[in-house]
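Notebook B, p. 112. Complex prediction, attempt 2.
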Amino acid sequence: MSKRLQDLRRASGRRLRAWNARRHGADSLPLTINRRRIYILPTRFGLALAALLAAMLIAALNYNSNLALAFAFFMVSLALVAMHHCHRNLSGLSVDVNLESDAFAGADAVFHFMLRNESSLERSGLEVSLEAEQPARATASVPAHSDERLVLAVPVGRRGVHRWDYIEVRTLHPFGWFRAWTYVHASLTAFAAPRPEGHRPLPSAAGSGHAPLGETHGEEEFAGLRPYAPGVALKHMAWKVLARGGEPAVRVYTDLGALPEWLEWSALEGVETEARLAQLCRWILTCESRSARPYGLRLPGVEIAPGRGPTHRIRCLRALALQPGVA
Amino acid sequence: MGVCLGLAIAAHIASLPLWLTAVAAASVAIRLFLAARGLAAPSRPVKLGIAAASIAILFLQLRTFNGLSAGTALLSLVAGLKFLETRTRRDLYAVALIVYFLCLAALLRSESFWLLLYLIGVAWLTAATLLRLALSTPRHGWPVDLRYVGRISAQALPVAVVLWLFFPRFDAPLWQLPSERGNAQSGLSDSMSPGDIVDLALSDEIAFRVRFDGAPPPVAERYWRGPVLHETDGHTWRNLGPTAESAATLTPTGPAYSYTLSLEPHPFNWLFALDWPDRWSVPDGHLNADDTLVQGAPVSRPLDVSASSHTHVFTAEPLSATARRRDTQLPSNRNPRTLALAVELRRAHPDDLEFAQKVLELFHREAFFYTLSPPPLGANSIDDFLFDTRRGFCGHYASAFATLMRAAGIPARIVTGYHGGTYNPYAGYWILRQSNAHAWDEIWVAGRGWLRVDPTAAIAPERVEAGLDGALAAEPLGLGIRARVPWITDLRLRLDAYGQLWRQRFLRFNQVAQLSLIERLGIEEPDAEKIALVMAAGLVLAFAWLVWQLRREQRTEPTDPAVVAYRRLCRRLAAVGLARRPHEGAEGYARRIGQSRPDLAAAVEALCGSYSRLRYAKSSPEQGAELEAFVARARAYRPRRKP
């Protein structure tokens, strides 16, 4: 019975969401929650209280007990006001979030929410989750005229791309008798890179798999400048040139070891797909943390030109996440 | 939440079995103790065992789970035991529901203003607890949360008042009230031994209050009629209970007095109308064969009765043979000296009225005393009283008089009820306490009917004229129970007057009062439809007020004058097409304006710089002056639309 009730709730939630999505379309962030998109319903606790009050009202009317009647009417009225407070707690709040997040399989994808409260009222007991059935939720209260950052860690399972179609922001404030909620139709994506695993040595520079990493350290000579491209380590930037007002440029060194290192799918012939990706992931992390050399990634159908830095790393990891699995 | 529950149960403490309160308190205490020690709650079988045992004991004691008291007891117990369970939010919600139920149940049974205040406090605390429960980690302390609940409550008040005033009331209950004899007060009973009323005379409990519509009858005529006693074993007199006989038709001779009685609950169905009632407002009220006004069920709740009475009546109907036999019955083997005295007196005075007069004269002439501490009497109690002790209270004189009358063959009966009363000058009504309980006699006189004779008046005329206090002024015992400090008496009367106001205006607000209120609003001949309209209009007004109130709260501007001035500045700049972007700080904003509108650069940068210093720099003594200057300049600043 309870299960059927839950199914019914889910189905009606889906229908409401679909209607809501048709009505509002995809939302652009930051979104200010207006009154037209806030839904409010009594909670189970609220319904139980309503039943109790109804019974008590009838009893009080029957016994003609003005005292009990006054108390019961006061509670009814309090519930009505609480409903307004619950609704108002969301109304006018603005929500922003990073739409993409990177994670490793089996760990958490982290979304940073920014809740902005322009009004003079405190917003308390706000709860944010991705989609209704997601168990991961984060709570916060936002004081008047201020912002609150909220970190939502969503566990991701398998490697791959995880998508959520909407965010649910809800509140039980003030007494837990009502639940007000709203859907923010924003597509959130988490790229789950494979968990870095494997102990094979890094292939040598130029993709031939010879010279181990580290040999070339300290044997570099300045050779000139080349135009800036994203992904270059900050320490290689020609800051002086930039300071003089020139175009951003990168210092280039002549060093055999500085030639890009290619991390290749084909270097791991004969290894099972997921393990291959896991090994590539470990190599990317190693290159990023240990070496100053740019590295490139070659996957079936994908080639990422050599580079360095957080953006480059994320590009590579996302490429790993996007690789189709065996199944 | 434990505290809230404790307080809610405390409201019922008088009507709950003591052990139950103890069990509930103990389980809350144990739970709190375990939680403080970080220990787990007791295991499931233990909890179930305790619960089953307690519920079984409760059932054995009450024999039912039906009815309000039993339900309250059961719920208090369950709520207490619920606390032994794990404390998830859901469990606490369940406890909150029980707390609300207990509050309402307590109010259903009580009429106390103080209880209402107390329970409002409990509900307040419960709401604050719920408020904190809805957050995973409370942000504010209790005072802030309690204030917030106070604000919500204040906003809820108008709607509640409108609902209370105009919500249609039932004129008759949908189902019969369960009569609860258990909590009824002390008072007159359906039997009396000579010393019985003494116990009542020591009680200050209020039996009823009465307000006369016009002038009250003289005190010598203010007899409030209760049960009439016929049957006697020579010592105890008993009421017969309902009989098939009907009362004789009484013809009034004196003026009518109309009045309103506010009865306190008592275990019987007597309504204590003034002798002799002819009209009353109780739907199932009627006069029984003894001319006492009664209703169908015991007066288990406070009851208001409007009635009118004539203090002088007569009937020409004859007394039925059954009644005559019954009201001359005496046990022949008791009180031989009294019987002999009656026979002797009767020989000299064959006329009934003359005989009665002689007996009263006897009481008056001989050394009889009126006292609250009569000596104990033996098996022939009337003999002992009349010939030996000669000290007694109204019960003694009434029984002795009735015995003498019956011994002389004159039908006589004892009437118990109340007499006199204390006037409350602050509210214009009379208070009848248990200490006003009284017993007197009625004898049958052909052509006149039952005639009231009060033998106490023969011994202590002050009792009838000035009340008990006057009659006992010289008696040391009387002083102990009735503090005769004028200002305390005065204070008590004032408090009682407020209590009556609360009852009349609040507790007795019924359909009639509702209609008259609506009539006073200028609506003629109100009917159900008009009441509904008035209520709807009231609700619309109340909700409009609420919405206005909520909006006003939300619109409250920031209190920092610097912020107010800065916002105004931003609005003015936005009006000329230079709106601040949400992410921009004051200085970044100024810089951007400087780039796009060099003509405004100097002024805006100065203002914004000043603003960020005021807001974010460390506070210093010069800030006061800078703030003033900033606010003044920001107010005066009007950016031009075109460069």
